[in-house]
Description:
Elements: E1 2-7, E2 13-16, E3 19-23, E4 33-36, E5 39-45, E6 50-51, E7 55-59, E8 68-71, E9 73-74
Parallel strand pairs: 1-8
Antiparallel strand pairs: 1-4, 2-3, 2-5, 5-7, 6-9
Amino acid sequence: xxxxxxxxxxxxxxxxxxxxxxxxxxxxxxxxxxxxxxxxxxxxxxxxxxxxxxxxxxxxxxxxxxxxxxxxxxx
Length: 75
């Protein structure tokens, strides 16, 4: 298992392999760290003002203190 933070300026629903993982931020506005199986995954956010529209990323050798960061921007 691996750890991932999905960064975006606001709060958005996160999809990993088209399955919802909830919001990228907690109720206090801080990034949530998601627990994801190791391997290649497709990450996507809700909304149409997100770039890129999706990202493929390999989760491997991550830890709670050093999660993989998947970064999206607002367009």
